[in-house]
Write a structure and sequence with these properties.
0% strand; 77% helix; 435 residues; mainly alpha
Length: 435
């Protein structure tokens, strides 16, 4: 077999193995290692490339962003800031049709800016928001759909684990990726709020609900007490990166320290909670770094096989335009989103398409935002929509089936697709803060 054939077969093999349940880094690493061995018929070369992949990836200083932002997100979640922000948002939207759903989106957007995890958001707001919406007679499918849809904001609004993973795969600045995610993240949040307003206006049966008379208007002093800690944390992290006073690593360290101080001040931090946060940070960090190491050897395997160059040549022969490339890319991401998780999609697809995007003179920062938003749609689509599974498991309510969660999330997946098209059509939306 030729190197091209081995390379193409390896991509298919990786997708099949992941779909069958093999751990993603194992699938990437083992298939890539064996493919290099077969292509060059040299076991020593394959071993040496594996060593290079390790030294060129996880040994970099910028990888410190992973444990720091992970720890900050866990501490903030344990400090109960998500519930406080939701209470403030609920008070503000209490008189609006579907207002509790809008409050959930708003609270999720703020919570995402300090956690960077859609799974954490889905877990927190499943416990906080869904029971309240059910008590107010909202349609159960709408209630879980709002939480599922808005939970994806955690993967695009910085700090985001997916933006970190992309930045290392594409060799881009983590700080630039964070800043580029601000406007698209806010766009997506506003689009969700707008969609809920339209659903309440034109499909009231799907939304359901009654006026929240039992939700009180909060005095300004209480609003300030509940929101200033999280707003201050966002200002320190993103403001420090934007002004250039802090690097991404330093911003993560500062955010972790401030988050820890907030948790101590609110008396939510004990030695047991602190130790649990440290252990979970270690588990998450190890998983992400293992992923990136495996992706590094996978990228080298594709380069040796010449798969990206061959794909570029095919598109050139067929006079593939910018529109053709992006259409193919989005369709491929949407298809893989029904089978794989977000990190798998990024690690498999991005190395294939980067050699096509760079010669076109397109921004790899913008391409990263498009990639993450496109891949995130997969969190809401069956059969593997992870956010939907997390919500179902967290609720543990027999009245709500997994089918209800997926159907409730469907309108929000459609909204995400519209926002994705806008981001592709107008790249400046992603680059506005950087220019």
């Amino acid at each position: 077999m030729t190197p091209i054939e081995i390379g193409l077969m390896s991509v298919v093999a990786i997708v099949v193995l992941i779909y069958l349940g093999l751990y993603i880094p194992i699938a990437l690493g083992v298939v890539s290692f064996v493919s290099i061995w077969l292509m060059r018929d040299n076991f020593t070369l394959a071993m040496n490339l594996l060593k290079v992949a390790l030294s060129d990836s996880v040994m970099e200083y910028t990888f410190a962003t992973v444990p720091l932002f992970t720890f900050m997100g866990l501490i903030v979640a344990k400090a109960g800031l998500g519930g406080d922000v939701y209470e403030v948002m609920s008070s503000g939207f209490r008189r609006v049709k579907g207002g509790i759903g809008m409050a959930t989106v708003g609270a999720n957007a703020v919570f995402a800016a300090v956690t960077g995890s859609s799974i954490a958001s889905a877990s927190v707001f499943s416990k906080v928001s869904v029971p309240q919406m059910l008590d107010l007679d909202y349609n159960p499918r709408f209630a879980v759909g709002v939480v599922a849809g808005s939970s994806v904001l955690g993967m695009i609004i910085p700090p985001s684990a997916m933006l970190i993973i992309y930045s290392f795969v594409a060799e881009q600045s983590v700080g630039d990726m964070f800043l580029a995610g601000v406007v698209p993240g806010l766009m997506l949040a506003c689009a969700f709020v707008g969609a809920i307003f339209l659903m309440g206006r034109f499909t009231p049966g799907f939304v359901g609900g009654r006026e929240a008379d039992d939700i009180r208007a909060l005095p300004w002093g209480e609003i300030a007490a509940k929101t200033l800690p999280v707003l201050g944390l966002i200002t320190i992290v993103l403001g420090g990166i934007y002004t250039g006073w802090l690097t991404a690593v330093e911003a993560g360290a500062a955010g972790s320290l401030v988050g820890l101080v907030i948790a101590l001040f609110r008396r939510r931090m004990t030695l047991k909670v602190f130790w649990a946060a440290l252990l979970e940070t270690g588990h998450i960090t190890a998983a992400i770094l293992f992923l990136i190491t495996a992706a590094s050897i996978y990228s080298r395997m594709l380069g040796l096989a010449g798969v990206p160059n061959e794909l570029g040549a095919l598109l050139a022969e067929g006079h593939g335009s910018y529109f053709t490339v992006m259409l193919l890319y989005v369709v491929l991401m949407l298809f893989l989103g029904t089978l794989l998780d977000t990190s798998s999609i990024i690690l498999i697809v991005v190395p294939l398409f980067l050699p096509l995007i760079e010669p076109m003179g397109l921004s790899l920062i913008w391409f990263g935002i498009v990639t993450v938003v496109g891949a995130e749609i997969g969190l809401l689509t069956p059969p593997l929509g992870i956010s939907c599974f997390v919500i179902k498991a967290t609720l543990n309510d027999d009245r709500i089936t997994l089918k209800d969660v997926f159907l409730g999330a469907l309108p929000f997946a459609a909204v995400m697709l519209v926002v994705l098209i806008l981001l592709i059509r107008f790249p400046m939306l992603s680059l506005a803060i950087l220019n």
